[in-house]
Amino acid sequence: MRELTVLYDAQCGLCRRFKDWLAVQAPAPDGQGGVVRTRFVAAGSAQARALYPDLDHAATLREVTVIADDGSVYVGDRAWIVCLWTTFEHRPMAIRLASPAMRPVARGMIQAVAGLRRFTMDRGGGDYADGCDGRCDHQG
């Protein structure tokens, strides 16, 4: 796997914040002398529909969807785990979360994020974390 496309809800502040965070992470090796590249496409957009005409685009607006260059499609907790796997720093955690013993933990984390997303979107906000200065991303 050399490239992933992340379909994210561009109208959701939390989704945009995750996209921005993922975009600045150091990429992990792809096992072939390169790194896993990540590109971002707004879910439900004309570009997404042109690139992936067979996807359920309404569903991609409800849950993060990741498409690998080999055609594999990841949705929900699997998509989040694959996104972490693309990063140098967080790949070990992604591998742990992908194990059968940890998958329920990963699902619980994703359900919590989905609940926060619904909470902010239902209140007309949708801007959760838009004003974040990113300081919490850096320790030290």
What Rg, in angstroms, do the CA atoms define? 15 Å
State the total count of DSSP E strands.
Answer: 4
Strand portion: 5-15%
Order of secondary-structure elements = EHEHHEEHHH
Cα-to-Cα separation, first versus last residue: 33 Å
User: Helical residue percent?
Assistant: 40-55%
Question: Quick check: average pLDDT?
Answer: 79
Low-pLDDT regions: 126-140
Q: Which structural category fits the helices and strands?
A: alpha+beta
Q: How does the overall form come out from the CA principal axes?
A: globular
Order of strands, main sheet, comes to 2-1-3-4
Largest sheet: 4 strands, mixed
Quickly count the helices. Answer: 6
Detailed description of the structure:
The chain has helices at residues 13-23, 46-51, 57-62, 77-85, 91-98, 103-122, and strands at 3-8, 37-42, 65-68, 73-75. A four-stranded mixed beta sheet has the order 2-1-3-4. It is of the alpha+beta class. Helix 4 packs antiparallel against helix 5 (91-98).
